[in-house]
Amino acid sequence: MEYSFSKSTSALSSSAVREILKLTQGNQVLSLAGGLPAEDSFPIEEMREAFNRALDHGAKSLQYGLTDGYIPLREWVSSRMKQKHMNVGVENMLITTGSQQAVDLLCRVYLDEGDVVLVENPTYLAAVQLFQFRGIRAIPVDGDAEGMDMEDLARKIAQYRPKMAYVIPTFANPTGKVWSLEKRLGLLKQCRENNILILEDDPYGEIQFDGEAPYRSIFSLDEHPDGSAVVYTSTFSKIVAPGLRTGWAIGDSQVIQMMVKAKQAIDLQSSTIDQFALYELLSRFDLESHIQKIRDSYKERMEWMHELLCRQTSGMKWNKPRGGMFLWVELPEHVHSEKLLAQAVKEGVAFVPGIPFYADQPQTNTMRLNYTLLDREHTELAINRLGKAFAEYSQLVAH
Amino acid sequence: MEYSFSKSTSALSSSAVREILKLTQGNQVLSLAGGLPAEDSFPIEEMREAFNRALDHGAKSLQYGLTDGYIPLREWVSSRMKQKHMNVGVENMLITTGSQQAVDLLCRVYLDEGDVVLVENPTYLAAVQLFQFRGIRAIPVDGDAEGMDMEDLARKIAQYRPKMAYVIPTFANPTGKVWSLEKRLGLLKQCRENNILILEDDPYGEIQFDGEAPYRSIFSLDEHPDGSAVVYTSTFSKIVAPGLRTGWAIGDSQVIQMMVKAKQAIDLQSSTIDQFALYELLSRFDLESHIQKIRDSYKERMEWMHELLCRQTSGMKWNKPRGGMFLWVELPEHVHSEKLLAQAVKEGVAFVPGIPFYADQPQTNTMRLNYTLLDREHTELAINRLGKAFAEYSQLVAH
């Protein structure tokens, strides 16, 4: 049998990074590469109780359910969204297999092959891959620490006639950036004027370090829910646990219902029992305290990594993030971070080079470090190994 | 905001059937429409214990996991597949969100817009919808009680140059049909000769009523795993519970790994905790006895529905299925089953009209009845209501 894959699979071709990171599985390599939450934050005993209570509902907890999701869970999310100035009902909402699936579903119902999506530069690598896999052109818009550059945005809109803009305005992946209110409103205005749908991806918004009022979502700043120029997606992965694979999307009911129909064809629905259990957890859990603990813990880990990086004499530059899970590092210009990774893995530490986060011309001297997974001791060990790899790499390059 | 959906969404437009079936939710309508397993077959207490043991693994049970699935679960499936003459390892296997997702993943990595898939006539309606949603042409091949007509298959291959054939050879949905060994080998031969990949969908194979040796999967009849002309998919939905949304696909490792990459982009992975729990269940559960109980119970329900239908004087025709979950009924020629459904819902019973199961020209006097969900008493009530609706419909048509 001679297999002949679809054209779109060319976007899925193995990356050098993936191959290197595979080497790190199951051995002594310390990983700063993934986007994994700290495991000591998972409410294991509460989840045990929640699954027990879910199964007290009997067979319904194990039967097929609604494609758009378990209604009590959607009501809970709706009520939480309302606290964040997003006035949505269950009909504006769809439960997804992580927020990643929401991106896929919206692409499939809204974009055709060859359509253009504007993205940040850099942006979430899996979104870029997903766009490419669907034959969609991802065009990067320049930006600064406050968000997209509004002039470049206007230029790119005029030049490419995009149908969508994909942004992570709060504690972005990979940069940790937070958009200013002005930039949020600016994006909204230009997108509204040009009939461009905004996909606002917000997995990290709750992980805010500064104790200030939460940043306003772009969705909340627009007319909504019906007629909204924004589809907003988030997830329980970072505030409860990722293994439940439960996220949600909210938006105009017509858009959401189209996503529901697509999901019905694709996988019928996400896990019934996980949705029941999550609802049982949330209905009795002190989520606010739990999130506050995660914030405190991640802030401490971020400060610690920051301190450890400051001790290195490597010429690295970074901005201290105000939230989220990542430190985005710019290395000296001569450093190619994929080559540095190969050296780092030999020393027993891994990270993600910046290259795959760029939709177009990558800046090759960048890397993303995750500070949430490892504890204090292992973070120190990891950064020391990284420093050693960096020194060796510099020496190799010098020769 | 003016929304403009992708071209492919035209395949998702609301169907009359879906609208009628919506009316049946939450009220007194008895449903023979869904493909829902009997709820008294769900091992609720065993699942409770299994989730408890899964959470004994600690944080790993709630963390991100491998895209291709939890290794112990894949090893369990591999060992079960080996009992069924399918000699596969974990690298030939991918855990999916129900077998429905396996169909989507294979379509995405193997087929381009405009490609042709050969299907049975009729075939599983959600597969037809999925093909259309991806812009793939589903071409029906004629068949009889034993499987596809080999001459029509040859004709359609010559005419349409298909890249894939999608079949449910054992207790098909909707017809309940079982393919003969000869037809299985015939399909395999023609597909091998023409480099056509076969997608063998087998959700119902375990639900066999006659106590004979299990029917051989087409996958098991081919050279395998590597180089196989077949990708085989099945699910725990019908032998444990559908709410866990856990299925699997097996095939050539190159094909499977491409599906893994696609899944990584689409939703990263299916629920970690559900896979842990399912493995914990299966490692201590007497699955054979459990499946035997399901077989006995479904056989009894099928026989009962058969008997009830025989009492009706409606001119309906059907074959008694040898397994699976559905009775496929041919009504007298003058009956349009969508119109009959409207009448039936008024009487308090629902079914799925045959029309959406046809990729092309539908036979409008057909319907699919599910016999697994309702108990004895409700099945009787449902068939009586159906008989009444039929009588009223006939009278309306006569006038």
Automatic annotation (TrEMBL), chains A, B:
Its cofactor is pyridoxal 5'-phosphate. This is Aminotransferase. PANTHER family: AMINOTRANSFERASE, KYNURENINE_ALPHA-AMINOADIPATE AMINOTRANSFERASE, MITOCHONDRIAL. Belongs to the class-I pyridoxal-phosphate-dependent aminotransferase family. Keywords: Aminotransferase, Pyridoxal phosphate, Transferase. It comes from Brevibacillus borstelensis AK1. SUPFAM superfamilies: PLP-dependent transferases. Gene3D superfamilies: Aspartate Aminotransferase, domain 1, Type I PLP-dependent aspartate aminotransferase-like (Major domain).
